[in-house]
Amino acid sequence: MINKILASFDGAFAENTIRAYRADFNHYEKWCKTHNFQTIPATADNLALYVEEMSENYKSATIRRRLNSLSSIFHLSRNPNPTRDPEVLLALKRMHRKIGRAQKQASPLTREYLDKMMAKCDNSVIGLRNKVLLQLGYESMRRRSEICQFRFEDLKKMPNNKYALILHQSKTDQLGNGRLIPISEKLANLITKWQKRIDIGKGVILRSIRKNGAVNAPLSPAAMTNILVDLQYRARLRHLPHFSGHSFRVGSALDLLERGVPLEKIMLRGGWSSKSTALKYLATWIGSDLAVFEELEIPY
Asked: What is the 3-state secondary structure (H, E, C) of 189-217?
């Protein structure tokens, strides 16, 4: 059933979105089978019970995401969509009171930590790749899947002699309108040096590397996290929570904030469409007290 439904979504959503829809529906379908419930059409009572039972083992963000996925699937496949019915909304409220709404935020990879990790990258093929990864992630402030999609041909020199990378598609740009991401000359030179080192004319910038130093397939977003944690340990930063792809966005945003860059410009750079979303990343690390935002002259 889900294969037929998702086939009709082909081309309308990013591959990651389709993958998430499939995984979330499969979880719901397995749950229905354990209770001998019909998957589609869904009922409000069944979904309320689904939320209630998930609250025993899952975080609230995961539960909300799964329910949102089901809502999209039901609605776009012209099936009854009871995800906003009173029974389900009340189940969500009970879930939030029980386990809270807090979502774990990525540990910020600020310039201070970036420099320490960069110092652990030698001039080998892996070391140069890791330098590009660190600098690209920090400057672009993109999500890990977006960092991995940058290509050599996306590097452009602008009329003002500055450099930029073309981001063809992102989570907030599903239609692929694209945008230019300003980068430093240092990063542009690093990318060019890396391209010459591996002798590849075009294609994705970040690549996986075998133990013998041979350049392999494009780097996966999951592998990026493993590389960051390895560099974090080597830089003697193991006392900090593990860095992830989102750590670039938070760390760079915090550094910009400390330098007095207005929140609107930080939002534009990081691709955040609303102040509430941007502040969700920052408030955890600078304090959610209103006085803190007022001191930094941030309109909260």
From this structure: HHHHHHHHHHCCCCCECCEEECCCCCEEE
Question: How far is Cα 162 from Cα 153, in angstroms, rounded to an integer?
Answer: 16
More confident residue, 289 or 271: 271
Closest CA relative to residue 188, chosen from 152, 219, 224: 152
Q: What is the CA radius of gyration of the chain?
A: 22
Instruction: Report in angstroms the alpha-carbon separations of 222 from 17, 207, 218, 246.
Output: 16, 13, 12, 12
User: Can you spell out the DSSP letters for 54-113?
Assistant: HTTTS-HHHHHHHHHHHHHHHHHTT---GGGSHHHHHHHHHHHHHH-S--PPPPP--HHH
- The rounded distance, in Å, linking the Cα atoms of 233 and 245 is 16
**Residue appearing with tokens 């591996």:** 198
**Crossing angle of the two packed helices 60-76 and 86-99, in degrees rounded to 10:** 160
pTM of the model: 0.68
Average of per-residue pLDDT values in the chain: 86
Asked if 56 contacts 16 with a C-beta cutoff of 8 angstroms, the reply is: no
CA distance 228 to 182: 23
By residue count, the chain amounts to 300
pLDDT in tens, 57-74: 998 889 999 999 999 999
Q: Of 193, 138, 183, which Cα lies nearest the Cα of 156? A: 183
Cβ burial, residue 42 (10 Å; 0-12/13-18/19+): buried
pLDDT tens-digit map of 143-153: 888 999 999 99
